[in-house]
Specification:
The chain is about 45% helix and about 25% strand. It is an alpha/beta fold and about 260 residues long. The chain is globular and about 45 Å long. About 45% of the residues are buried.
């Protein structure tokens, strides 16, 4: 296994949770997961994280230092939690592009934000993180929250983030990572593999999708491996911050 990319060295298979599947099959399976959970995704996030995901996202936005008038990409925007906050920061003269490969999640996000009156400075684009349909040197900032672990070629997605950023722009990736405390790690495993699927069955009638999500977290590169991937993609001044003792980490880097 090539841990940095999540693929076997031959490049013909990749992981879908703990399973090995053909590369072409992973996108279909991940798409089916998010098609299944889209309508109750936000409720499930609140329940399974006890609401703490809102704090993690607030911290990521706070550290983005996005300013009025800027152009921002929210990749893997999902149901729009980051896009909502970013749209308010950039104001009427700025623009937020909410991009996601999954149409059901993107539609759900658009419905939520329109209902909240957030229109005019938001644009929605269905896009593959590995091949972004945006020009070079376009965005002042790019964010990606809880989406990178679902990408097959993570190194390609990071290179794309680098490409579409303007000089001086910052990329921030918020993602589940490796807990730093052994006792916490054991409790987290117990919760992820035994409690979380039961919650998925109870709330969205889909235990399998949340079993995959738990497995995908374990297959995702840890803090240091993802930091090295940022550097390999060309980013400078790279670093990361652990939240909740490393359950989640915020990685960031700049295009100089």
């Amino acid at each position: 296994m090539n841990e940095a990319s999540g693929r076997r060295d031959g490049g013909d298979t990749t992981h879908f949770g703990f399973q090995q599947v053909p590369v072409a099959e992973k996108k279909r399976r991940v798409g089916a997961v998010f098609d299944s959970v889209a309508q109750r995704y936000d409720l499930m996030n609140d329940v399974m994280s006890f609401g703490i995901h809102r704090v993690w996202k607030w911290l990521a936005i706070h550290l983005s230092h996005v300013r009025p008038g800027q152009r921002v990409l929210d990749l893997a925007a999902g149901t729009g939690d980051l896009s909502r906050r970013l749209a308010r920061l950039v104001g009427e003269q700025g623009e937020v592009v909410a991009a996601d490969i999954n149409a059901a999640m993107l539609c759900r996000g658009r419905e939520r934000l329109v209902d909240e009156g957030l229109v005019g400075n938001l644009r929605y684009v269905q896009a593959d993180a590995e091949r972004l349909p945006f020009p070079d040197d376009h965005f002042h900032c790019a964010t990606m929250a809880f989406g990178l672990r679902n990408v097959t070629r993570k190194e390609a997605a990071l290179r794309e983030l680098y490409r579409v950023l303007r000089a001086g722009g910052q990329a921030l990736v918020l993602e589940f990572s490796r807990p730093r405390l052994s006792l916490l790690s054991r409790a987290y495993d117990l919760y992820s593999f035994h409690v979380l699927p039961r919650m998925g069955k109870l709330i969205v009638d889909d235990a399998d999708s949340y079993r995959y999500l738990a497995e995908s977290i374990r297959m995702h590169p840890d803090q240091e491996a993802l930091l090295a991937m940022f550097q390999a993609a060309g980013f400078a001044r790279c670093g990361y911050l652990n939240f909740s003792a490393g359950i989640v980490a915020l990685h960031r880097g700049y295009k100089l």
